[in-house]
User: What shape does this take?
Amino acid sequence: MSDAASFPHPSAWDAQTYADDFSFVAASARDLIEWLGPQSGEKILDLGCGTGALSATIAESGAVVEGVDQDASMLALAAREHPGIAFRQADGQALRVDAPLDAVFSNAALHWMPDQDAVVRSVAAALRPGGRFVAEMGGKRNIAAILAPLRAAMAEAGVPVAQQPQPWVFPSPAEQASRLEAQGFEVRRLAYFDRPSPFEGGMDGMRGWLQMFARAFSAVCPADRWEQVVRAVEDGARDQLFDGERWVGDYVRLRFLAQRV
Ligand SMILES: C[S@@+](CC[C@H](N)C(=O)[O-])C[C@H]1O[C@@H](n2cnc3c(N)ncnc32)[C@H](O)[C@@H]1O
Assistant: This one.
């Protein structure tokens, strides 16, 4: 098992705030573990495990779980919270495993990986024949009501759309199924659905969400214009996403169970 001090890269995530204020991400995908159906003794990798909350739930089945993530801060917190589980730092686009796995699980992480073909290829290579790849990710039109005012406000702040980051990939069901099939998977289950997601923090919920998830944008925004961007997103999204008490993100999820042939 790795320990926090051995993770070499600086962190892009605020793991403690993620754990404190965004636990809904893992909580809302707990039934994805039913799709996985983990069995005692199976070797299962949780890809993009974050703070390890779902890794720990999977491990309750008796499966031997390893959590993998790219982010040092997430891994450090995961190792502290779940000392019985192995965590290691790796890029999901270039996974390496010592022995073939029974399953790879992933929640809310794949859409952060720009090279989707590389992810699916490396997951396929990590699985034994018949092994399962069970995942949920953002799907086509995910957070469209946030992204539109965010891109417009960034342009207004001096960062043209063509120069703005593309931190996420949100495939359609057809795109994802084709990608999986091209890498030797059979798609056994697939679901594409809206999941309106309330943010913590009342009126400040959108601000907090942007701070957590839109760092790629704030990093390239002139520092003295970021506040203006946040307010413009709030103004632009309010009618659709603020219910009078809280912000409710327009999450759209894509979930699949694919089996390696
Ligand atoms: C929104 S969090 C989800 C964490 C956890 N699966 C959950 O359900 O709470 C996304 C995670 O994906 C990880 N991630 C992003 N890109 C990655 C990559 N290329 N390889 C491995 N992990 C990655 C991030 O570091 C982060 O921990």
The two ends are 31 Å apart (CA to CA). The first helix runs from residue 15 to 21. Residues 219 and 226 are 9 Å apart (CA to CA). Confidence is low (pLDDT under 50) at residues 1-10.
